[in-house]
Amino acid sequence: MEGFTRKTFIAMVEGVREEALGSGLIDGASWERGIAALYRTAESGGTFCYTFFKGIGIK
Predict the structure, then answer these.
(1) In angstroms, rounded to a whole number, what is the distance separating the alpha carbons of residues 46 and 5?
(2) At residue 1, does pLDDT exceed 70?
(3) What is the mean pLDDT of residues 42-51?
(4) Domain for residue 25, yes or no?
(5) Least buried of 19, 20, 42, 44, by fewest C-beta within 10 Å?
(6) Does residue 34 form part of some domain?
């Protein structure tokens, strides 16, 4: 939990906070609720699942 969930995944998400808020993708209160929910997944009884996927864009 500490190595991947907290220090990798959550840290990666937290690293784009200013960009996400600045571009209007999410508001501050929603961001804080989401980050808190991510931290809860790393607590006792929490569940964390991450799926890697590939996306292709066509214009």
Answers:
(1) 11
(2) no
(3) 87
(4) yes
(5) 44
(6) yes
27 lies in a domain? yes
Cβ burial 29-51 (10 Å sphere, 16+ → b, else e)? eebeeeeeebeebbeeeeeeeee
Distance between CA 2 and CA 44 in Å, rounded? Answer: 12
**What is the rounded CA–CA span in Å between residue 26 and residue 16?**
11
Distance CA 59, CA 57 (A): 7
**pLDDT tens by residue, 8-46:** 999 999 999 999 999 999 999 999 999 999 999 999 898
**Domain range for residue 35?**
2-8+17-41
pTM above 0.85, yes or no: no
Please count the structural domains in the chain. 1
